[in-house]
Write a structure and sequence with these properties.
Keywords: Glycosidase, Hydrolase. The protein has about 475 residues and is α/β, with parallel strands linked by helices. Helices cover about 40% and strands about 15% of the residues. Strands 1-2-3-4-5-7-12-14 form an eight-stranded parallel barrel, surrounded by five helices. The protein has a three-stranded mixed beta sheet with strand order 6-8-9. It has a two-stranded antiparallel sheet with strand order 10-11. The structure holds ligand GBH. The site of ligand GBH has 12 residues, from loops.
Length: about 475
């Protein structure tokens, strides 16, 4: 007889474990073999001071050259799948379909073949933030024509790789892309606060849905793969038990996850009502005749509704939220939603300010998604722990504790709350280029010596943790 306690620590048959990365953060070779310039190449080269340590990703982990070694490492840990992203400007240097860079195609084709030859399933993200600079020059995600450019790019990827790739993610964390249109620190850093976010998000959603429909009409019957979008969510805990704070926390959830999930997984193919109300009222108070939140046409709503084959969820941490109607700073994050964010003294943290260890928040996110959108096949496309260089070592016990406790909570959501989760991707395989935080934050299961011209890789203890976990398939 099996011990029921033992059973509750076991992952169901078919549950998949993987590890993730993204092109800009690991590949390097920024201008090699015909690759075009991306907005992150431009940002890091033109404004090196905005990167915390003045570093860039010109070489990064040099995975463009070392991909065979990477695949062997991933295999040695035992992962079922590897989630990586394609650099749009490596395939299409200017983002335009008439000019295909065959060397870029070859690179990803070789990587995919190498993975499959080693028994690792590829999961491919089309857009993890490295937009071709040329497309930015003509308006980027604020230009409605970006939907057609993205559609062309997606079709090319499906055509060239879809015989071997069965898992597709259109866009990684559209929320971050959108926020980069409102602020001055995250590419494209356009500072169109209060308008740029909503406009770019609108086109990100439509680009996703268009790519999804292309796959289903042109490729699905022959390739039999699945397509989704990867949506990030923090769990937002109310600061007090007051009604206002509880509503504020729920609002924060809607303005982050609901913003993108409601149009795709909700009943109406539209933004959450609370967003429409709050942004509509704020816009009115500013004397506008239209809301800063764009509207979908009925055709666009039906395009969006149901445009996903599974639910890609990314989760790292939690915040504490309080209701605050009087936010004076005109550029305050989330002024429209009338909340303030903080964190709890009780949460153990990393030294990275936004990253606290709150395993219960993971369970709550899975429950929230399931409660809001009905039974979903959730697939965790990113979850991980990092700290600054000086606090991370090969004996990364805190990272192991993070994964262990988060996975425990995930299993509770599956076993006790009736939620379905079918896979988990750890972020990240390597220490890599952390956007404007540069090389200082370390999120890898594998350390990379960036000073070494050969970018020597060394497994941390957490890699051994995953190896044992994947062998046991039980916590
Ligand atoms: C992931 O996003 C990214 O997908 C991945 O590329 C990245 O390497 C990983 O995070 C680790 O950073 O600076 O206080 O404004 C996770 C969600 C959203 C978390 C943005 C950090 C910045 C908070 N991220 N957030 S702050």
């Amino acid at each position: 007889m099996t011990d029921p306690k033992e059973d509750s620590r076991r992952f169901p048959d078919g549950f998949l474990f993987g590890v993730a990365s993204s092109s800009f953060q690991i590949e390097g070779a920024w201008d090699i073999d015909g690759k075009g310039e991306s907005i992150w190449d431009r940002a890091t080269h033109d404004k090196p001071k905005t990167v915390a340590d003045g570093s860039n990703a010109d070489v990064a982990c040099d995975s463009y050259h070392l991909y065979k070694e990477d695949v062997l490492l991933i295999k040695s840990i035992g992962f079922d799948f590897y989630r990586f992203s394609i650099s749009w400007p490596r395939l299409l240097p200017k983002g335009e379909i008439h000019d295909v860079n065959e060397s870029g195609i070859l690179y990803y084709s070789n990587l995919i073949d190498e993975l499959l030859a080693n028994g690792i399933e590829p999961m491919v993200t089309l857009y993890h933030w490295d937009l071709p600079q040329h497309l930015q020059d003509i308006g980027g995600w604020m230009n409605p024509l970006i939907i057609d450019y993205f559609a062309d790019y997606a079709r090319l990827a499906f055509e060239r790789f879809g015989d071997r790739v069965k898992w597709w993610i259109t866009i990684n964390e559209p929320e971050m892309v959108a926020i980069g249109h409102g602020k001055d620190w995250f590419a494209p850093a356009l500072k169109h606060f209060g308008t740029g976010e909503y406009l770019s998000a609108h086109h990100l959603l439509l680009a996703h849905a268009t790519a999804y429909r292309i796959y289903h009409t042109e490729f699905r019957s022959s390739q039999r793969g699945q397509v989704t979008i990867a949506l990030n969510m923090m769990y937002h805990w109310p600061k007090t038990e007051s009604k206002l704070d509880k509503e504020a926390a729920e609002r924060a959830m809607q303005f982050q996850m609901g913003w993108f999930a409601e149009p795709i997984y909700g009943k109406k193919g539209d933004y959450p009502k609370i967003m429409k109300d709050f942004i509509g009222q704020a816009s009115k108070a500013e004397g506008r005749i239209k809301s800063r939140l764009p509207e979908f046409t009925p055709e666009q709503s039906s395009l969006l509704k149901g445009s996903s084959d599974f639910f890609g969820l990314q989760h790292y941490t939690s915040t504490v939220v309080a209701h605050e109607p009087e936010i004076s700073d005109p550029n305050a994050t989330h002024k429209d939603l009338q909340v303030t964010y903080s964190s709890s003294q009780n949460w153990k943290g990393s030294h990275i300010p936004w990253l606290k260890i709150v395993p219960q928040g993971f369970r709550e996110c899975i429950k929230w998604v399931t409660a809001k959108y009905g039974e979903q096949n959730i697939f965790v496309t990113e979850c991980g722990y990092g700290d600054y260089e000086e606090f991370d070592s090969l004996n990364d016990d805190v990272r192991i504790e993070y994964f262990q406790t988060y996975l425990e909570e995930m299993l509770k959501a599956m076993n006790e709350d009736g939620c379905k989760v079918s896979g988990f991707a750890a972020w990240s395989i390597f220490d890599n280029f952390e956007w404007f935080d540069g090389l200082r934050p370390k999120f890898g299961l594998v350390k990379v010596d960036f000073k070494d011209p050969n970018k020597k890789r060394t497994k941390k203890k957490s890699a051994e943790y995953f190896k044992a976990l994947i062998e046991r398939r039980s916590l």
